[in-house]
Every structure is written in structure tokens, then in C-alpha cells.
Amino acid sequence: MCLYKLLLVRNWNFSEHPHVRYNPLRGEWVLVSPHRGKRPWAGQVEDIQADAIPIYDPKNPLCPRNTRANGEINPDYQHTFVFTNDFPALMPDTPSPMESDDPLFQIKGAKGTCKVMCYHPHSDRHYANMELTDIFLVIQEWIKQYNIIGKNFLWVQIMENRGDVMGCSNPHPHCQIWASDYFPNEPRIKHDKLKEYYEKHKEPMLRDYLKKEMAKQERIVYENKEWVVLVPFWAFWPFETMVLPKRQIQRMSDLDNTQIKYLGRMFKEFTAKYDNLFDCSFPYSMGFHGAPTGEQFEIDMPFWTFHAVYYPPLLRSASVKKFKAAYELLAQDQRDISPELAAKRLREQATIR
């Protein structure tokens, strides 16, 4: 290596200088530009709604005893409540089109089901201010729905949008469960990459990754007896995180009582960190990924590690969010704040809201 290049390497700092990082779960590179965090902000500022959320809203279709758009009346539920989405994106009994042989006009049928799951009868509740016993009931209902729906569909996606910024117009604590008879793009790509890594290295990728992150301690945000929350080395969203189990499991159905107990604690304590970061009801999209279900439900897939991901849009305050636009849409993903700094800021937050 010539002297000039050697000096450049010695002077390089990943918290200051632009660089790209590889995401092994997608086979893509992310541009990290940490120096841009110093630039003044003249972009869009979100209108943050700070109004107190009532315990009960007679006009909210997710509250107990209220009438939904299809005319059905919700029961007077005391804990969780699950129903089929009144406006589902997927349905189990739709006809399928004739498949095309043309390579440019491929089309296939899509069957599935869409559920809505309310976490609690009170609209002002979320993980940080819920009782642990109520959070345990949420996790147990997730597992129940996963097992029932997973018998019939290849993929079961449990997911939650929180906040107006994420397009969630209803503040009542809830999630959605969409299931499909085909492999959606994101988990399909992840499935292939996890399998490739396992075949080459004989170890699950995310198990290897967690071991190395635990040794480095640079991007760990939260951990308890069973779970670790970290900002991925390759994270795209400013305060993106991944939740990984300390004991290898492949699917949500593999969770034992101890893992459920500490997963509940994680939800309560870690989401408080998010809320404390900008002193707001922190918006995000989150969801779980694990080995596929349906006809593959009973197949052992040691390359899969069950995990959750959080994709929050906020960038530098409660009112400034990151957009995926321009360069990210036309070239590649790009972030400003380094994953290490994001992890440090989250790690410093209290676990009580």
C-alpha cells in the first residue's frame, strides 16, 4: 500500500467519513454519510399531535362495544380481540387469473387472509404503559393466531404501525396479521440469503451476527436474559433496530414460557426508550420474521432465526422524519447518523416512560 493510501486509511473515521456497509440479509449496500448530521434542516417538519388519547372513544371502531364499518358490533372485550379486517388486502376464496407465458407480463393469483388484533380495551395504552400481564396476553394471542393461520398459508406477517407519521390513523393499540399463500418479497429475499450463508458457513447467519455484536458492544441498545435489541451494522432507517433471541429458535411457535416472559419485558422497557428519545409517542413500523409456515410449517430450517425489526422514520426530533426518496429510490439506501451513534443515543434512554 502506498504512503498516501496508508495515511488516508489511518485518518479514516466511520463516525465522520462517508462509506458503504453491506446488508447480508438483502445482498445490498447502504451508504452512510455521518458528516451530514451537521447540516441545517430546512425540510418538512411534521405536525405532532400531542392531544391526550381518551381511554374510550364512542366513535372509534376498534373500541369495545362499538360498531365497525361493516355493521358488526365489537364485544365488550377485556384483553385482546381479533377479527377479520373489514377491508382486507387478501382474501381466501378469490378466483385466480390464467397464468401467462409471456416473460414481461407475469401474473398469478394471490390468496390469504387479513386480521386485526386489538391489544387492550383502552385506547390510551401501549407497551410502555401496559401491565406486563397484558403484554404477555398479547404475545400469547400472536402465537395462537400464528399457529392457526400458519396451517393454511405459507407466510404469516404479524406487523404493527404506530403513529400518524406511519399512516396509522387509529391510536387504539392494535396490530395487523396478514397471511398469504405465496412468499412476499422481503422474507423471500431474507430466506435465500440466510440459506446461502448457512450452506457456506454451517452456522445460522443471525446467530453468528449476534455473537459478534455481543463481543463488540458497539450497537447494543438493550438486553435481558433472553433477548437483545441492537441497531444493525447495515441499518437504513435512522433509529432502526433488530430484536434477536439469545437462544436459537426458528418460528414464533417455538417460543417457550421463559422467552415469552422476557419478550414482554423487552417490549415494555425498550419501547419506553424509543418514546424517551424525542419525548413523544415514537412512530414506527415493526414486525416479525421467521421460517415459513403452511406446507413448510413442520420442516426444520436451521438457517432461520426468529427475530423482530423496528423501522422508525424520525431523524433528528419528534417533528423531523426521514423520507425514502430521490437517491434512495434511484440508486441505493443512504443514512446520515451512524448506526453506532444511533445505538448510543437509544442506549442512554431510560426504560421507564
From TrEMBL:
Amino-acid positions noted as binding UDP-alpha-D-glucose in the UniProt annotation, renumbered to this chain: 36-39, 69, 85-86, 161, 167-169, 176, 322-323, 327-328, 334
Keywords: Carbohydrate metabolism, Galactose metabolism, Metal-binding, Nucleotidyltransferase, Transferase, Zinc
Galactose-1-phosphate uridyl transferase N-terminal domain segment(s): 14-184
Entry annotation: catalytic residues: 174 (tele-ump-histidine intermediate)
Keyword Cell division tagged: no
Superkingdom of the source species: Eukaryota
UniProt-recorded Gene Ontology molecular function terms: metal ion binding; UDP-glucose:hexose-1-phosphate uridylyltransferase activity
Any one GO BP annotation for this protein: organophosphate metabolic process
Membrane in keyword set: no
Reactions catalysed according to its record: alpha-D-galactose 1-phosphate + UDP-alpha-D-glucose = alpha-D-glucose 1-phosphate + UDP-alpha-D-galactose
A Pfam cross-reference name: GalP_UDP_transf
Domain (Galactose-1-phosphate uridyl transferase C-terminal) ranges: 192-348
EC assignment: 2.7.7.12
Pathway involvement of the protein, from the record: Carbohydrate metabolism; galactose metabolism
Cofactor dependency: Zn(2+)
Family affiliation: Belongs to the galactose-1-phosphate uridylyltransferase type 1 family.
PANTHER family: GALACTOSE-1-PHOSPHATE URIDYLYLTRANSFERASE (PTHR11943)
The protein's name in its UniProt record: Probable galactose-1-phosphate uridylyltransferase
